[in-house]
Amino acid sequence: MRFPHRHLLGIEGLSPAQINTILDLADTYVDQNRSPNKKSDVLRGKTVVNLFFENSTRTRTSFELAAKRLGGDAINMSVDGSSVKKGETLLDTATTLNAMHLDVLVVRHPESGAVKLLADKVNCAVISGGDGAHEHPTQALLDALTIRRNKGRLDGLTVTICGDILHSRVARSNIQLLNIMGARVRVVAPPTLLPRAIGELSVEVHHDMATGLKDADIVMMLRLQLERMQGQFVPSGREYYRFFGLDYEKLAAAKPDALIMHPGPMNRGVEIDSLVADDIHRSVILQQVELGVAVRMACLDLLTQHGRNDPA
Amino acid sequence: MATHARTAILNARLLDPDSRLDQRGSLLIDGGKIADHGPGLFRDGVPEGIEVIDADGACVAPGLVDLRAQVGEPGHEDNETLKTASQAAAAGGVTALACLPDTDPVIDDVAGLEFIARRAREVKLVKVFAYAGITRDLNGRELTEMGLLAEAGAVGFTDGGKAVADALVMQRALAYASIWGRPILQHPQEPRLATGAMNSGEIATRLGLSGIPAVAEVIMLERDLRLVEATGGRYHAADISTAESVAVIRAAKRKGLKITCDTAPPYFTLTERDVGDYRTFFKLSPPLRTEEDRQAIVEGLADGTIDCITSDHLPWNQDAKRVPFAQAAFGSVGLETLLPLTLDLVHKGHMSLLDALAAVTVKPAAVLGLNLGRLRTGAAADLVIFDAERPWRVDAEALHSKSKNSCFDKHPVQGRVLRTLVDGRTVFTLAA
């Protein structure tokens, strides 16, 4: 199947079939990544630039690795947020990049919508590596692949997303994807960490882990930034941990075989107890990292197919 | 099995505002609880082994539940101690009170709540509950650990005499507190507008005192009501003092907003005129208002717009009041005058006896989610026996409170507490 989109800026707008296409292809790359010869030449001659306006270690490394495993040339450009002055400079960046004849641009930006702004101006494929509190599509796709490989399906599962929904692009992308694929989505957070209209995004809203986790198949924990638990959104880390941190006691409400996920990096002892995070029978947090590379390979592959299949 | 102390109260006018009971009869206390009551009880005499209290026709009602009182501890023991405040409460027929967190140190953590609970156990007179701050150090910026505080027994959250001025902080406080089922109490005063010493108006102008305008209250109140609408939080407006506030709350309740509010006796009894010649005992926060405001407060109580009447007990030693008016502390003691001044509304025909009692018993208990303030079988025997008619004159020097700063000193009142019981135990008896 041809992938009809030029960019991957979000989960919104993808069909179930398109999501399955990405996940199916990613499955094959999982095998490639586990084989002795990890490298192929799908992206030979292609240039992938990671343009990160925000700090990132795992997402940037994951994209870089994905491009290199496919035989492409990957370059990292980190732009210090303070040296970039809003829209005009971002568009200047776009014209500069156009002059370099890139094939894929992976962009992360602290402002929602900034990746779209850039994508409208560059003449290569753009993959969002996360924009503000809007979307982080490859994270949702790797989460979906992790669930699918462990549970065999997405539809009909109950997925509970816990934590800082308000600031989370991971939550928004996952809510989109899981709804598209027919899962039931719940969110659990104190009201101060929930957008007001979250209930209108086809999710069940809970403020209590006991009800939110009841019979859940999947428990997705989100990171709570330190600066948000000092009396602003949440009174303190210890209060947050007591009521919203995932420990075995709260996890007992979920199904006995419920999987625990976290996009990383974790705040141990704040949103998740160390024992739970490291439980090899329940936690698939490291699998998420592994599958992230495969999912990003699939995305790079699909978004460059157009150029490859056309006569030169 | 331990034998419970049993007490019979005979010849009583039994009053329960919750069930609208108003009936002659007797009441039996067993093991600290109301075991039975009614007109037929003890018709054939009281069995042996039961202590008998002859009410001699006096009213027996649920003990008063006071929404807001300063008990001086920790840190202001020169003004009041938990013991003297409890004695004042008992003398006033108040069997349960909720103390405010603007102490020194402030009550904004679990240790503070545990301190109050321990002191209340030691004093063991009336039931003492505690609020915790909405914000740390009552600084108006960072939320307290409301979940942990609620688990430790905080009955609600308030920054006491300080209003939470920052709209974002208030919005988050309302949202966050809602999941713990505890109310947010706000003393609604826009702090930038409330820097004066008494009500803005002709008298303040004549006295040369800076004024606190009525709008300082209604601005904060209206803002808060918008935030309540946005968050669905539980909100209680403390110390309503102006006609406009009453109108705003009446309209909000009509719209279906689930809010509650209270006022205190000074605001339906006194006016700014009582400040007279710089009388600092009449310096209150909010300030005493105009006669029109006072009448509106009475109407608000009469039609149920104002839910509760609180003592607003705020003890100050002489030094805090024997200073120029602008420098004097805000506040008056109130625990021992709460019931007679509430009964004044009944004597003047503004409220029925049961409605007036509801405002100081079952309604404040409901605000705090406490199963108190009811006279019914099975309930705690927290009772006040009072003569609703007996006239007397308040004498500040005779008050049990450590501080004597009553704005009702020498005020003639009608209605006297004769005896107060907490869990069936007599904690106050009026000297003959």
Proportion of beta-strand residues of chain B? 15-25%
Radius of gyration based on Cα positions of chain A:
19 Å
Assembly type: heterodimer
Strand order of the largest sheet of chain A: 7-6-5-8-9
Put simply, the count of helices of chain A is: 11
State the shape of chain B: globular
- Biggest interface pair, counts: A-B, 17 and 17 residues
Into which percentage range does the β-strand content of chain A fall? 5-15%
Shape category of chain A: globular
Tally the beta strands of chain B.
18
Biggest β-sheet strands, sense, barrel of chain B: 8 strands, mixed
Helical segment count of chain B: 13
Average pLDDT of chain B, rounded to a whole number, is 96
Helix/strand/pairing category of chain B? alpha/beta
Span of the ends, CA to CA of chain B: 37 Å
Largest sheet of chain A: 5 strands, parallel
SSE order of chain A, one letter for each helix or strand: HEHEHEHEHEHEEHEHHEHH
Helix content of chain A: 25-40%
Q: Which percent bin holds the helix content of chain B?
A: 25-40%
The residue ranges of chain B in which pLDDT falls below 50 over 5 or more consecutive positions are none
Notes on the structure:
With 312 residues, chain A is of the alpha/beta class. Chain A has helices spanning 16-34, 58-69, 86-98, 114-119, 137-151, 169-180, 209-212, 237-244, 248-251, 274-277, 285-309, and strands at 47-52, 73-78, 104-109, 125-131, 158-162, 184-188, 204-206, 218-221, 259-261. In chain A, the strands form 2 sheets. In chain A, strands 7-6-5-8-9 form a 5-stranded parallel sheet. In chain A, strand 1 (47-52), helix 2 and strand 2 (73-78) form a beta-alpha-beta unit. The radius of gyration of chain A is 19 Å and the shape is globular. The two termini of chain B are 37 Å apart. In chain B, helix 4 crosses helix 6, helix 6 packs parallel to helix 7 (243-254) and helix 7 (243-254) runs parallel beside helix 9. In chain B, strand 9 (157-158), helix 4 and strand 10 (184-186) form a beta-alpha-beta unit. Chain B has helices at 82-91, 110-123, 146-151, 167-178, 202-207, 215-231, 243-254, 265-269, 291-302, 318-321, 338-347, 353-358, 362-367, and strands spanning 6-16, 21-30, 33-38, 51-54, 59-62, 64-69, 94-99, 127-130, 157-158, 184-186, 198-199, 211-212, 235-237, 259-263, 308-309, 383-393, 412-422, 425-429. Chain B has 432 residues and is α/β, with parallel strands linked by helices. The chains are: A alpha/beta (312), B alpha/beta (432).
